[in-house]
């Protein structure tokens, strides 16, 4: 439904639209077109917190660039430590966008956790965004796939079973002011559901650079919960507000949440029966 609505919005893309620079791009004319990405730009940040009852900290970054006029691309990268083991990931976005109306694109990612000989998960799907004043609705939906293996660690058998299955991530965001975003959303990863909450506060530094503080929390089934926050820096060709950076520069980076595709697919069972401690166990 999200993809169809965004597609309908693009059908109106040749009409002139309002010139409120806080939330919209410049008006169209007969000699120009809507830029999906406003020049080459990027961001880099660091974060820390916990996920699925384990420590989680690292760095992330993205680079976005225009492809002609109405198309754009973005590459995301993640390098982190999860439960004191190296966790790395990469993602790619290819999309068309009207910065005053919305975005429609395809998405793919790959994540590897250096535990039990390497545990991997990937996602392929479509993403979309809709813009209406200070409101943004964004989502990602597709297919999740990964490893299935069993590894004995001490007296515990760790089972990883990640069949090919449906996943989705979605948010409703509101900008309390042009440099302050809050959002609430839903995640379905690794066959489990969670609610998501978070926000970001941008602080312009000049020369095309913005710093921001961000945070996200998840509350869901079993161990599908966690929270992290950190500091991010945006780099672009011009100064602009946070809402404009989100709509004219880089699409949403979904990497941080995808590790739950691994944790939600893991179970641990005793490798041997527990020792007998009752009256019928015989002499010790």
């Amino acid at each position: 439904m999200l993809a169809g609505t965004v597609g309908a919005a693009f059908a109106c893309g040749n009409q002139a639209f309002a010139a409120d620079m806080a939330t919209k791009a410049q008006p169209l004319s007969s000699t120009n077109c809507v830029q999906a990405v406003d020049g080459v730009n990027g961001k880099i940040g660091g974060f820390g917190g916990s996920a699925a009852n384990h420590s989680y900290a690292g760095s992330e970054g993205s680079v976005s660039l225009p492809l002609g006029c109405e198309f754009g691309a973005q590459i995301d990268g993640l390098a982190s430590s999860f439960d004191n083991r190296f966790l790395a990931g990469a993602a790619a976005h290819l999309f068309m966008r009207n910065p005053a109306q919305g975005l429609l694109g395809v998405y793919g990612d790959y994540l590897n956790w250096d535990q039990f000989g390497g545990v991997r998960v990937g996602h392929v799907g479509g993403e979309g965004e809709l813009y209406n004043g200070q409101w943004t609705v964004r989502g990602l939906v597709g297919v999740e796939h990964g490893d299935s293996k069993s590894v004995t660690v001490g007296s515990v058998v760790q089972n990883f079973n990640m069949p090919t299955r449906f996943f989705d991530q979605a948010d409703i965001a509101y900008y309390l002011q042009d440099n302050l975003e809050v959002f609430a959303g839903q995640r379905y990863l690794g066959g489990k559901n969670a609610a998501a909450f978070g926000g970001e506060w941008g602080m312009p530094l000049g020369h095309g650079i913005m710093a921001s503080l961000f945070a996200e929390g998840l509350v869901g089934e079993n161990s599908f919960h966690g929270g992290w926050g950190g500091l991010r820096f945006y780099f672009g060709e011009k100064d602009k507000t946070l809402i404009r950076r989100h709509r004219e520069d880089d699409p949403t980076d979904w990497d941080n949440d995808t590790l739950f595709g691994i944790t939600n697919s893991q179970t641990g069972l005793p490798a041997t029966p527990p020792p007998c401690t009752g009256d019928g166990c015989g002499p010790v």
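Confidence is low (pLDDT under 50) at residues 1-31. The chain has three helices and 15 strands.
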